[in-house]
Structures are given as structure tokens and as C-alpha cells.
Amino acid sequence: MSEATPGTAVSVRNVTKRFPGVVANDDVSIDFLPGEIHVLLGENGAGKSTLIGMLAGMQQPDSGEILVKGRPVRIGSPRGSLDLGIGTVFQHVLLVPTLSVIENLMLGGSRWRLLDRAPVLKRFQELSDLLGVRLDPDALVGRLALGEQQQVEIMRALWRGENVLILDEPTSMLTPQGVQDLGKVMKRLRDKGVAIIFITHKLAEAYEFGDRISVLRLGRVAGQLDKARLKSMTEAQITDEVLRLMFGGQKADSRDAETLLGRGGHLKRQARADRSKPPILAVKGVSTLADRGECPLVEVSFELWPGEVLGVAGVDGNGQKHLAEMLAGQRPAASGSIQFEGRDVTHEGVAQRRRHGFRYITDERLGEGTVGAFSVATNLVVKEIGVPPLWQRGVSRWDLIHGHAREQIKRHDIRTPSERTPIGRLSGGNIQKALLARELNGSSRLAIFNKPTYGLDLHNIRLARDRIAQCAEQGLAVILISNELDELLELSDRIAVMFRGRLSGVVPNEGNAERRIGLLMTGAEAA
Amino acid sequence: AGATDVKSIAVLTPEQGTDYGWNQQAIDAGKAVAAKYGIEFVPAEGLGYGDVRPQLRELAGDGVSLMIAHASGYNQAAPEIANETKVPVAIVDRPDANVPGLIADYTLSGHEGAYLAGVLAAKMTRTGALGIVTSGEPPSWNSQSAAFAQGAKAIKPNIKLIYAVIGPAAYSDAAGGRRVTESVIAAGADIIFGQGDGASFGMMEATETTKATDGGDVYFIDVIGDKTPIDKGHLLSSVVWNLVPVFSAMVEDLKAGTFGTKHYSIQVADDSCQLLHTKHIPDDVWSQVMAVRNGIVKGDIKLTPVFNAADVRKLMTSVEIGNAQ
Amino acid sequence: MSAAPEAARSQGLPPTLMAGRGRAVAAAIARFLLPILLALVVGAVILLLLGTDPLAYYTYVIRRGLFSWLGIQATVTRMAPLLMIAAGLIVAFRAGIWNLGADGQFLLAAVITAALGPALIGSLPDWLTIVICFVVAGLVGAVWSLVPAFLKVRYGINEIISTLMMSFLGISFANVLIKLVFFDPGTTVPQTHTLPVEDRLPRLFGSTIHSGILIALAAVLIVHFVMTRTSFGLKLCVVGANPRAAIHAGLNVGFLTYATFAISAGLVGLGGAVDILGVWGSVRADWNPSFGLLVVPLVFLARFHGLATIAFVMFFAVLQVGGESAAVRLGVPTFYTLVLVALLLIFLALVEYLDYRRQVRTRS
Amino acid sequence: MHSLFTEPFLTALLFGAITAGVPLLFVGLGEQISEKAGVLNIGIEGMMLFGAYAGFVAAFYTGSFALGFVVGGLGGMAVAGLMALLCVRLGMNQIVIGIGLTLGAEGLTALLHHFQFARSYPRLEKAPVLEIPGISEIPVLGPALFHHNLIVYLIVAATFAIGWLYKHSDIGLNLEAAGSKPGALDAAGVSVVATRVGAVLATGFLAGMGGAYLANVGAGLFVPFMTNGAGFIGIVLAMLARGKPYWVLLGALIFGISLAMTTALQVAGLNIPTDVVQMLPFAMVILVLVIFGRHSVLPAALGLPYVRGER
Ligand SMILES: Nc1ncnc2c1ncn2[C@@H]1O[C@H](COP(=O)(O)OP(=O)(O)OP(=O)(O)O)[C@@H](O)[C@H]1O
Ligand SMILES: Nc1ncnc2c1ncn2[C@@H]1O[C@H](COP(=O)(O)OP(=O)(O)OP(=O)(O)O)[C@@H](O)[C@H]1O
Ligand SMILES: [Mg+2]
Ligand SMILES: [Mg+2]
């Protein structure tokens, strides 16, 4: 059974892994070859992270086996994985924020020994050169930007992952430039003979960097495109093939393909805003106070009309979070004013603004968007606690609440075993659907989307984008914060760019918008 | 209240009756008195300081003739249950609570014995300083502390008296007892008059393991019980309470229908309060102390107990300030 | 910081009460009974080692604590303050706040009650005195929780430690109050004035059980209802489970946190009032029943559920009352009850873990 | 008044402060290790008490103080083992299990004491003292600071050693990571469970030794409930020390001195109710928290069980 292709770095053979209610991996067999970038594709919940979790020693397969260089192994712990030369960058950052970069790299190195900085520092320099990054080894990791943290993670994965390097959705928080840099690193490592497993939701990245593509669907291997086939096909053919594998017999439409390629920009929606009327929202000179390690807002002003989508671009950490929170009422404005429909709402809180029709879809689905331990039903009403008819004189009517949830689940196609399942157990895409269902109900007037498609698969991205477009159609004013440029280009009427807490410019979404945005994002141009 | 047939007596103590002190004296006395009158004895030991009403009700329900509630912490509950069940109780530390036929107080003070202990200590100290260490400041200990001080002063007016309380609820704080006693010894005392439950053992330990400032041995004077069986050669004496006469008198009074009309007390006159004679006390000193005892019995020496903590402390400081060498 | 209580919620296993009602309830009961059985068995071994016949001991305890009229009265009376404290703890724990300061809150409220009751009883009608005592006791408890609440809201300081500190502080402070302010000069031992027996809470049907038990039972049931069936309760739960989500949802986290502390500590304070007005009538210096830390495991064993809490508190009261009686008759000190509670916790943990493993295995 | 504050008296006071402070140093250091690793160890009071009992039994029957400390440490470790099993391995709630273990240790030791020693009240000899030549001659300070059992010097040395290890060994990194982001530690190939179990066992050992010191050196005997909240003071010290062992040392010393001061004030005849003095340490903690509240940082994962790969 365990005959693997000669020269494989690592293989999985007939691996099955179940979780309560799901078969996450179903009889999966794949070979990963040295000197090859092997891309794993698949929709949310297809089982990609589970598969690499088993290679990383985080999970044990229920059945099947794992082979390293043709030899069957049991990877009982992350340590076991590292000892086999498998390094992993997980989907979520796994670094100790209270330790420095170098300390994070020393973690798990020597056992029962005193720390010796010198050799570690030397290796750090080597890897820095290899990766082409500049990091202060003594900086606290908690103070680094997300992109820098990811560089540390990759460095750590390489530290002992000399045979296999696994990267689970590493590009979801990188800038386009960052993605290019990462691609160069991957290629360099591949050329040194490392087997690279690369998970992404963006097909364009798969084409650009991948030597081989495997597609997972519902926990099974739906198919594989090897080097030779990839070479022989045109991009369109590959796209067709991948779509067929990902979604089975279902016919994917062309817009799916565009999204998948990250080239949805030209799908631009029809602008409908009528700017002759007074704006629905007017923000004048708003600043906020910075908490530790955050970028506050500085004198932000803009106006927004019903039916309009204002995109907000910018490198992560330039005040977008504060902007969203300030608008939602979660964060007080230190100065300046906010007018909504001519009314001053500067000092109103979340609940009051919600009553005016403000809606905020946060980028932290689990961090603040939901209470992970509570049921889907509770989370669907968590912003309306106490409001009739689900509550009558303060008494919960759980029957109605659950009924309401079942209806929402059906309407918005939220995939959950039941309305009583703790929402934290759902996949990211389904949590996002729940959030959209909760926010975009009834009498909303202004919707703030913060990275609404972060971590979602193609299908869910499509759904979310359509929802946003639909909002504008229905006359809502929309603020769309995103670092996916194509998303902004597809959906926005105008695009504001944030740089160091300021709105460095607002660009109409036309013609050479892309170039101007790029300049504004780096602070090169001030508009 | 009429005469009653006494069939059994119960003694309720907060700790186990094995402490060579307060609890054990009561349990032992109860046993002895029961034997003396040929009645049943029900020991109820180790009841703690919580609510003893259930235990009292249960004992009353079992038909006990007299419940001796041997803890000041019980002097609220016991009269209440006596009123509820009409079973007579004896209580401590509430002299005003007597109810004929039902409730009798036996607030005891070994102050006479403590006075003698003060005399003994003053005669035997080499350093001219005595320590008084208590784990708290309940009235009976206050009166004994004060009498000890008075006795010592009577012999040597200039004697140095060092007074220390371990802590608020330090009855079982053995480490605290030891630490405080060591400080008091370091301050010059070579004889410690110690009052405390578990803490007493810490005080004893200190006298056993610490040298006085003159390099000689330190001696310990205990209260209530007789710790000779566990002595390691530093137990100078003890103000021993003998509760047999008191409990006997209660039984007699119950039989005679006079229960609850008197106050019981212990005194050196009938040896219900006596100073323990150990081998560490030279004969001449002992006879001098006994002479003082006779003076008390005859009424030549008049003693009034001091129950108030502040007054006790006043006694100490007034002795100490100015006169210390 | 609220992380700890959140964990308490999730690591106790998924709430099995949710699906398949009948079988789940049976399983839940088995999950309670098995640990009790195991604890009793290991407890029996300890008794044997100490030279006591365990069967005789257990039968005696149950007979005295449960199946005798005197015993059941004592048991129910003992339950009253424990239940009030439990009610306070349920609010806090469900809302993700670890109020470990119950001892201080309880004692201070008790002292104030004992100071107030006898002082007012002459000049005011009985019922009014009692009402005023209750209100003030609740307030005293609540006030004593203000500092930990402030520290939590303002600086996010772990309330576990701050409430413990306030508890120790409160216990000493209660003694200072008795000794320096509220002492009864007529007594030799420092204690407050005494509320006469006839002015205490009325007793039920000629028994020695005081009506405080009704208040306590009502408190637990109301708390359970509020925490599981009302919007206010749900808001508290959300704040406890994920404060950031609460902010995001527009809840006033600061206010709700203060409210949780105040309600929890206030109920504990009422527990002090119930015990003083129902049983004691006065407080003596250095008295501290340490109910607070005892009730924590009970409430937890009951998974914060009101009815289960009543059952566990009753179980504990039977053990205590019967055990005190057995201490006198059979010579097994009351400390044994503490050992039994610890064993119960340990076995509950083990049984739950094994059950969880079994569930995971059967489901996949 | 002055006459009282003689050299021997001051010496005894300071000596007493050290004796009272040493058990706190043990538990404070122990608690700090647990907390660093993300385990809020409320059971430390029970570990200390059980260590006191076990240590006393060993020292009493063998006559060896050294053995007393070791067995005391092992006794504390036994309770810690339960905590490690239930809270770290099985992920049960740390607070509730901690309280339960403390109650259990209180009950069990009182029970054992009752059947074993309640008639004999055995007491130990004075613990052997190691005088540091030279410096132990300094007036007051010499005899107060350098006339102690070897274990006192060892634990003070250990304080610095621990501080050094925190900084310069992988143990320090692992503890920090286990308390701050256990997932990261796991991903780096170090078992979180093992790290935390080790930390909890170390805590139990230290707390047990602290208990043994309290019983064998402090009191010279065992009485039920004798730790009387010292474990909880250890939790306070750990909280105030914010991960720095030296601050635990300082805090333990201050607590010891404040206890000794109670005696000093009384011996000096000052009439302050002891309860007021008793309140001071706790009032101080609260005050420190209110004033410096924003600076008291605890490990992010404190109190949270870690289960690999759980969602
Ligand atoms: N620890 C777990 N407990 C329960 N269910 C899990 C767990 N891990 C994964 N699952 C489930 O297994 C399935 C596969 O999840 P997995 O994370 O592998 O998907 P994925 O392909 O990585 O998706 P995504 O693109 O969203 O990252 C999902 O249904 C998920 O809910
Ligand atoms: N069906 C539900 N969905 C979401 N949240 C709920 C639900 N039921 C209760 N809650 C909330 O979750 C918390 C935990 O509820 P839990 O089920 O433990 O309560 P319970 O006492 O068992 O109620 P019940 O007996 O009705 O199941 C409660 O505080 C409540 O506010
Ligand atoms: Mg994934
Ligand atoms: Mg994802």
C-alpha cells in the first residue's frame, strides 16, 4: 500500500479525518515532490487546513498513512513534524507576541540548554538574506505589522523545514508587492530542492507560482494538474478545468472565473448615486486617539451619498480599523463631527446609530463579530437583544429566536448542522454569511464592510460581493474597506486611500484609478 | 424552677478534647462529674465555631439533662435553644444571662492562679523581664494577663513586662506564636506566660529552642491545662483550671432546683484553680508562692479581675515606661 | 481577562441538555450520580483507613441530615445562606465574572445587618426593620465589589485576584467594625447587639426553619430565569463570553460589568442578612463561616444551573449537618466533609472527561 | 520605650520578619512559575498545607530537616500532580479545581492530624542554623539575616537563579510562550501540556517546601489550617511581581516585616487593634492596583486550558 513515487518528499496515502458531523478528509492520497511548488485549491471547508494539519502534527489521521521520503511515519506532534524537516506557516499567526523576533525563532530550538544567541543570529541573517527581508531581531513580535509577522513565521518554518515548507493562505494578508516577494522566495527555495505546499484561494497566484495544482472538494481529491499539463494548457483552459474540479458538475459562470483570478476589477458595477441631493453622511475632520500599537485617524473628512459605494484602500494598519470603528460608534471621535442625514451623531453609541440604520460588518469574525461559544441563533440576534418580537418585556422567546434563525439559515444558505451549533465551529465563509444576514436586514441605511471577503473562497467571495452591490442598488450608502484592489475596482464609485491615519486622497473609480491609488497608498502622491 | 432528676450531662467544646487545655479540661471534668454522680456523660467535641443550634437541639432531643456549652461562641445559641427546648444550659462569658432553672453562667477567671504565676515568675526571672503572649484578647485571658502582671509587680515593682498579642484570630497560629514569643524573648524576657490554643504549642516551641538574652534557658507558664506529658523541660508551671467543682455544683443545683441562680467561679481556695508544681520550681520559691496563695485564701490579698483589653494594656505600659532600667 | 470564565463555559462540555431531551437528561443525571458514587467509595476507603465503618458513617449522616425531623430542619436552615451566595455566584459565573470575594461581602453585610437590626427594632415596625436590613445588606455587599469592578472595567484587572484581596480586607474590616464601632458594651466578648429571637425572620409552620429559605430559593430560581430567559441575562452572558463582541454589539460593557458585580455581591450580602436575621441575631468578632469558597465548587458542579444548584447545596448541607452530628457520635471530625467535596470535584472532572471522550468517539 | 528596642530585640524582629517571609517567598515564586505558564494556581494554598503536613511528618519521624523539606516539596507536588492532571491534561476549570484541592488538603491534613498527633502534639528541635562566617557578626543585621537554615540561603539564591533562567534558558522562553500564546509554543515543537505540567509541579514543589518551612522551622510543629491564607498571599505577590522573581523576594520581605511590625508595635505598647494591622497588606495591594492598575499585565492565556487543534 505504501509505495510512493520514488523521490517524493512527503506523501499522504488514503488519509481520512473526521470531525463531529464532518468528514474533513476522505481517503486523500497526494504526493508532494521536492523542488516543486504544489498548490492546494478548494473552497472553504474543503479540508485543506486539515490535511496540512496532519502533516504538521497538529492532528492525527483517523486512517491512512503518511510517508516521508517513502518511509511511513507517525507524526504525533508538531515536534515530530519539525524533526522530519517539515516547516509550516499556519493559517492564523502563531507567534508569541510578548517575545522578540529572535526569541520566537529560538523557541523549541535547544532543549534544557542555555540560550545561545550567536548561532541563532547567524542563521537569522542567512535566512533574512535568503528571504530578502529586513527585520530587527530584538523587536517585540507583538509590535510588528502583520506582514512582518508573517515573514517571521516563514523564517521559522524554514528554520527546520529544510525538506518541506507548508504555507496555508499566506497571501491573504499581504500587499500585491508582498505577494510578489513571497513568490520569489518560494521559487528560490524550490530551486534549492524544498517541497513547497502552497494553499491559496486566488487562482492567479496558483498559475503564477504553482508547478502542480491539486484540488480538494468536500474532503476528497477532485483532481490534479501536473507540470506538463499546466504547461500545455492556456490560462482559460486551466481555469475551466479548476472550476470543474472545484465545483463538480455545476456550471461556474465567467464572473466566478474573474473573481478566482483576482481580476474582477473590470466587472465594475453601474454607479447609481445621485449626488445632487445632500449627502447622507458627512464626516468632518475626525481624529481618534491611538491605543498601543494602533494607527489613529487624523483629520478625516468625506461625504457619502445614498446608493454610493465608497471604497477605502490602503496598506493594512493605516487607520482603516479606526475608521470603521469610529463610524460604527464603537470608538469615540476625539475631535471633529459626524452628520447623518443632517443630524449630528458624533456622540452617539453603537446602539443609537444602529437605530438610524448604521451597520458594521467587522473584519474580525470571531474576535468581535461573534461569540464563538454561543449558538448560531444567539449570534444572529446578538445586536438586537431585547427588541420585540423576539423578546417580550425583556423575556426571551427562544422558540421565536430559533425559528428566526432557521429562516435566516435557509435564506442565506448558512451551512451549519443546526441553529444551535456554536458559531465558532463553522467555517469562515459561513460565519461571514451569518454576519451579513445579521447586518443587512430590514432598515439598514449605511453599511460599513471591513475586508468582507477576507479568507473566503471564490464562491463565498462572489456571494459577498454581490451582496454589497445589491446594497448599493437598494439605495444604501456603503463604505467598503478592503485591501483587494480588484474588489474595490469592481464595486466602488469612488476610492479613498488611507495613509498613516489620513485620507490621502479620494479617486473616482475610472481610467487610471489603479495607478493613482498605488501612489497614494505609499504616500507618494497627496491629493 | 423545681428540682430535676439529672440523668445525663453533655459538654460541647469547639475543639477536640485532647488539647491539654480549655477543651480537654472540660471534657475530663464532665467525665469525672458524670462518674461521681453515676449519670451518663455525652461528650460533644470539636463542634467548631459555627452554628451549634442543630447540635444543641439534637442533644436536647436525645433527652440530655444539662448541656454545658463550653465556648464563649456558644453563649448566644445555647440560651436560645434552652428557651426553645426547656433543657437547662450552662454558658460562659455572659454573667448577666442567668435564668433560674434554665440558664447558668460560669464565666471563669483564673486570675488568682495567674497572680500566683506572676509571683512565681518574678521570683524566678534572671533577666528581670517577663513576657505575656496571647493569641487573642478574650476576657478570661485578659483577666489572667492582668493578674499575672499584678502578681509580678507585687514582688518586683520595677519588673519589665512585655505584652504581645499574636493576631486577631490567631488561636491556631503556631508559627505566629513562635515568632512573637521569640521576639519577646529577644526583648529580654526569660519567662513566658502564654495563652492560646494551637498557638501555645508554638510558644512552647520558642521557649524550648531559644536562649534568653543572658544565655540561659527560657521557661514557659501555661494556662488551663497540664502539658507535663508533652513537656521537654521548659514548662515551669501552669495555671490549671479544675472544672470538676464547677460542674458538680451545677449538677447539685439542678437537683436542688437552684440552677441558674448563682455564678460559678474557680478559685485557689478550693483548688479549682491552682498553680502547677513542676520540678523546675525550687522548694523555697514554691513555699513562698504558697504563702501568697494562703494570703489570697484568707483574704489578705484582694484581687479584682480586669476583663477589658485596654485596661490590660494600660497595666503593661505603665509598668514598662519609665521604670525599665 | 474574562478568558478564564469563558473557558469554564466551554470546557465543561457542550451543553448536552440541548438535544434529545429525555435521553440527555438521563445521561446528565448519570453524570452527576457516578461521581457522587465514586467520591463516596473513595471516601469510604479513607474512613476505613481511619478505623471507622464507612457504611455506619454514611447511614448515620443521611439519617441525621435528611431522614430525621430535626436533621431536615437543620439542613434546610443551613441551606438558606448557602443558596443566597449560590444565587450571587450564578449571576457572576454565567456572566463570566469570577467573584471569589463572597466571604468578605457576606461577612460585612452580616455585621451591618447585626448592627442595624437591633438598633432599629425598637423604633420601627418589625417588617420595616427587616426590609431595611435586607436593602442595606445588599448595598453593603454591592459596595464592597465596587473596587474589583472598577479595576476590571478601567484597567481590565483580573477580578479573581482583586475580589480575593477585597475578601480578606473585608473580613478584617468586619472585625474592626465589631470591635471598635458596633460592639455591645454589655457583653464580655466583642460582639454586636443581638436581635431578639422573636424579632428574627418568622419561622415556617412551627418548625425551626426560618422564612429566609423561601427568599433564598426564590433568589436562585429568579436568577436562573433571568440569566437564561431574559434579554438582560443574555446581555450579561455576552459581555462575559466575549467583551469585544459585546462592544461591537453596542452593549454598555462597563455598565453591565458593574451591574454583574453589584448584583452578585448584593445577593451574597443578602445571604449575610438572611443568616443573621434568620439564625444568629448577632455577629461575634472573629466569626467567619467561610461559606463563599465552599459554595464555588457546588455551583460549578451544578453547571450554574439553578435547580441543580439547589440539589447540590442540599447535598452539601446534609453532609455538613449529618457530619457534625456524626463527629459527636462517631468521632469522625467534620473535616471529612471537606475531603468528600474535593473528591466529588475530582471525580466529576474525570467522569466528564471520560464522557466527553466517549461522545467524541461515538460521534465520529 | 527606647529601652525595648535593644539590639537583641531588633534582631529578633528582623529575624522574625525573615522567618515569616520565607514561606511567602516559596509560594510567591511557585505561583509565579504557574502563572507565567498560563495556569492560575488557586490550589497553591492546599499544596502548601499538604507540604507542611508531609514535611513535618518526615522531619518528625526521621529527625532530618533536610528530608523534611524534600518530602514537604514532594507532598506539595502530589497535590500539584492532581491539579496538573485535572486542569492541564484534562482541561478542567483551574479556579474551581484549585479551590477544591485547597478544601481537600485542609480537610485531609486536619483529619490526619486529628488521628495522628492530636494527643501528642509533637514538636521538633530547633532547625540547624548555618552561620555565614564574617558577615554574621555584623550587629543586628548579621544575626538576623545570616543565622538561618541552609534552605533560606538556597531559596534566596534560587530566586536569582530563577530570574536568570527566565532570561537565559529555553525554560524561560517556553514558560512565557505557554502563558502568552500556547498555540505558538506547540507549533514550535514544544509540548504545551508538558511545559505547563512541569510548571505546576515546580509550583507544587516550591509551595510544599514553603509549607514545610512554615511547619518545621517557623512553628516547629504542625497544626491544622496553619497556612492560614499564606498561599493566597503568594498569589498576591506573584501578581504584584509581574513575572520578576526579585519582586517576589522584595514583596515577601515587606510582608514579613509588616507581620513582625505588628508585634513590635504591641511590645512597644502601642494600642492598635491587631485587625487594623492585619488589613494593611491587603489594603496596600488594592491601593497599588488602583494607582498602578494599568501596568499590571497578566499572561494572555492565563486560566485557559490548551487543547491542540481545537476549534
Ligand atoms: N478542530 C476541528 N473541530 C471540528 N471541526 C473541524 C475542525 N477542524 C476543521 N473542522 C471542519 O473540517 C472541515 C474542513 O476544515 P478545514 O479547515 O480543513 O477547511 P479549509 O479547506 O482549510 O477551509 P478554509 O479555506 O476556510 O481555510 C470544515 O467543515 C471544518 O468545519
Ligand atoms: N438556545 C439558546 N441559544 C443560544 N443561547 C442560549 C440558548 N439558551 C440559552 N442561551 C444562553 O446561553 C447561556 C447558557 O444556556 P444554558 O442552555 O446553559 O441554560 P439552561 O439553564 O440549560 O437552559 P435550558 O434549560 O432552557 O436549556 C444562557 O446564559 C443563555 O443566556
Ligand atoms: Mg484552511
Ligand atoms: Mg479560511
From TrEMBL, chain A:
Name the UniProt record assigns to this protein: Sugar ABC transporter
Swiss-Prot/TrEMBL keywords: ATP-binding, Nucleotide-binding
Keyword Nucleotide-binding appears in the UniProt entry: yes
ABC transporter domain: residues covered: 10-243, 281-525
Keyword match Iron-sulfur: no
Segments traversing the membrane: none
GO MF entry, a single one: ATP binding
InterPro entries listed in its UniProt record: AAA+_ATPase (IPR003593), ABC_carbohydrate_import_ATPase (IPR050107), ABC_transporter-like_ATP-bd (IPR003439), ABC_transporter-like_CS (IPR017871), P-loop_NTPase (IPR027417)
SMART domains: AAA
TrEMBL record, chain C:
Chain coiled-coil ranges: none
Pfam family, one: BPD_transp_2
GO cellular component: plasma membrane
Subcellular localization, as worded in the UniProt entry: Cell membrane
GO molecular function annotation: transmembrane transporter activity
Membrane topology: Multi-pass membrane protein
Keywords: Cell membrane, Membrane, Transmembrane, Transmembrane helix
Transmembrane segments: 28-50, 70-93, 105-121, 127-151, 163-183, 203-225, 257-279, 291-315, 335-354
Stated name of the protein: ABC transporter permease
Organism of this sequence: Hypericibacter adhaerens
From TrEMBL, chain D:
Compartments in which it is found: Cell membrane
Alphabetically ordered keywords of this record: Cell membrane, Membrane, Transmembrane, Transmembrane helix
Pfam families per UniProt: BPD_transp_2
Domain of life of the organism encoding this protein: Bacteria
Segments passing through the bilayer: 12-30, 42-61, 67-88, 95-115, 146-166, 187-215, 221-240, 247-268, 280-307
Keyword presence, Transmembrane: yes
Main location as per UniProt: membrane
Topology term for the membrane: Multi-pass membrane protein
Entry GO CC: plasma membrane
A single MF term (Gene Ontology): transmembrane transporter activity
InterPro entries (alphabetical): ABC_transp_permease
Protein known as: ABC transporter permease
Organism of this sequence: Hypericibacter adhaerens
Organismal lineage: Bacteria, Pseudomonadati, Pseudomonadota, Alphaproteobacteria, Rhodospirillales
